[in-house]
């Protein structure tokens, strides 16, 4: 859409720029027109925007009939950086971490005895890679099993100043973090002695 003088109106240019900037995916000219409530040809608007952004840090590009802003190709190296990918711990890793935190220093066999199942070597490796668990010496018993303990990184990540700040059973129960089976077992243990009388 051009005015009589052959220029694109600033308000139309700004509106198209805002729509393209806010879009989460490339847009067709029809989609841009629908946002603007226009039936006019947007090619002059898009071409002017492309010209205004040429040579800048971001540029307006058309790919397969769809328009979008992208980082200038020659600046990709500036934006490249190592990014930590958040990883969710498996249930086994979460339980293992909790056991180590509450019972440290603890051996693998002790963790398995508390959990009631074997843990794979990879589970402790994941916790060590995260920087939350470390080897803490060896227990002075036959076989001298390796002991595991939490790290200062564990405390920092979970916002604890010391292990004394770990939540207690009542805190966990109040937060709804204990399984229903835990509630049933606790109730059973409380009722059982009374039933025997």
TrEMBL record:
<keyword id="KW-0159">Chromosome partition</keyword>
<dbReference type="InterPro" id="IPR036390">
    <property type="entry name" value="WH_DNA-bd_sf"/>
</dbReference>
<keyword id="KW-0131">Cell cycle</keyword>
<dbReference type="InterPro" id="IPR005234">
    <property type="entry name" value="ScpB_csome_segregation"/>
</dbReference>
<dbReference type="InterPro" id="IPR036388">
    <property type="entry name" value="WH-like_DNA-bd_sf"/>
</dbReference>
<keyword id="KW-0963">Cytoplasm</keyword>
<dbReference type="GO" id="GO:0051304">
    <property type="term" value="P:chromosome separation"/>
</dbReference>
<keyword id="KW-0132">Cell division</keyword>
<dbReference type="GO" id="GO:0051301">
    <property type="term" value="P:cell division"/>
</dbReference>
<dbReference type="Pfam" id="PF04079">
    <property type="entry name" value="SMC_ScpB"/>
</dbReference>
<protein>
    <submittedName>
        <fullName>SMC-Scp complex subunit ScpB</fullName>
    </submittedName>
</protein>
């Amino acid at each position: 859409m051009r005015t009589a003088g052959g220029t694109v109106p600033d308000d139309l240019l700004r509106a198209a720029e805002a729509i393209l900037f806010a879009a989460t995916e490339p847009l067709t000219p029809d989609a841009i027109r629908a946002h603007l409530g226009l039936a006019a040809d947007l090619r002059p608007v898009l071409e002017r925007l492309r010209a205004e952004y040429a040579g800048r840090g971001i540029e307006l590009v058309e790919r397969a009939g769809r328009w979008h802003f992208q980082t200038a190709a020659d600046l990709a190296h500036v934006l490249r950086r190592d990014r930590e990918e958040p990883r969710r711990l498996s249930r086994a890793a979460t339980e293992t971490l909790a056991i180590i935190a509450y019972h440290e220093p603890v051996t693998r066999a002790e963790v398995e005895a508390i959990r009631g199942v074997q843990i794979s070597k990879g589970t402790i490796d994941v916790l060590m890679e995260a920087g939350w668990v470390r080897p803490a010496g060896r227990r002075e018993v036959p076989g001298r099993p390796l002991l595991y303990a939490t790290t200062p990184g564990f405390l920092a990540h979970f916002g604890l100043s010391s292990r004394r700040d770990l939540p207690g059973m009542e805190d966990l129960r109040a937060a709804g973090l204990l399984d229903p089976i835990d509630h049933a077992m606790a109730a059973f243990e409380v009722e059982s002695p009374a039933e025997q009388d």
